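S.,

Sequence below, as promised.
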Amino acid sequence: MGSVRFILASLVLLSHLGISIAGLNPGVIAVVAFYLLAGHVVAGLWAKWQRQPKALFNFYRDRSWRIVPQYSIAAIFAALLWHNGAQSPFISAAPALTDWLANTLIIPLNYYMYTGQDSFTLIPPAWSLATEIQFYLIAPLLLSQRLSRLIICLALSLVIFALAQSQWLNTDYYGYRLLPGILFIFILGALQQLSSRHKSLPRLLLAIWLLNAAYLLWLIIGQAHIPYNREVSLGLLLAMPLLAALSKKKSPQAHAPADPRSHAPTRPRSHAPRGNAYTPPKAGTDSHAGAWQPDQSQSGFPRWSMGTRKAASRLDKNLGALSYGVFLYHFPVIWLLQLQPPVAAAQDIASVAVLTIGCAALGHGCVERPLWRRFRPLKKPS
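The prediction came back faster than expected:
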């Protein structure tokens, strides 16, 4: 799912450069997909950890080491740019101690609509990160409940979401940003993770997806568009089947048992995979990595080699490693380019994208990986 997360983070970046698609904000669609993915991932983690010693401590430690290092570096970077004269509506107010505290704790950023915190937010999209953190805080409690109680929580959140869609509550706040109204999206991701163990869940997920599709069609036909009802609905419409497809692809029933020391399924060493027999390279040919060769003999279409699949998996993981940094660094990069106009225009997509990816790579390689190697449990409980 790494490449999917990278694409979603890139859509958030594009939306903050003022780019829309058919009048819709692609960043909102991406954030909704992030909510769904977060629920799916956390349900998988907690299912593995909940019966382990110190499960709650290990869960919160893992989430903290996942979130805090890169966020801290990005916030310090943004603070230095503000100190050197960067200008933006998001850093326009003279900060008080409470502003610095809010940016440090992250969660208060989610309530900017009531506190005015968006006038000094070092990482402007961090309000959605704050929403995810609040879900992480309650996730162990939620996911330890019986399935029926989890579905009740989903239904209660759906009621709040429906009130927001009908404008009894603020549609933007309770239909997109605040946890009570969008908790059901996280739970949908968790239910997708649990669906292989509960036969009724696929039908429930399909029913919710169809209901959402009908609602989106009604919004389009009725030309009803208030921030951000169409984007949230479209995000669910696209992300739910995508997550289902990715989950099915990674399902253990579809693969050989995995060697815990390797990301590749184990195979008997004495047998080559059918249809992909290894051909020793001829003299003078490139034998780099000793890759399996694609075989077209049976269907006429190439069956991708083991080496190709490993390369694709490695690329997917590398893109996933960059996605969080892309999400965090693109606003500071825009402010940096505003301070250095001879270098590149702050609204130039290529300049912002290249520098953002560079910052994300440096942050991951120089900050995250060394800290994770020492403090974050890399081997998840089985």
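Residues 306-339 form the longest helix (34 residues).

Coffee later?
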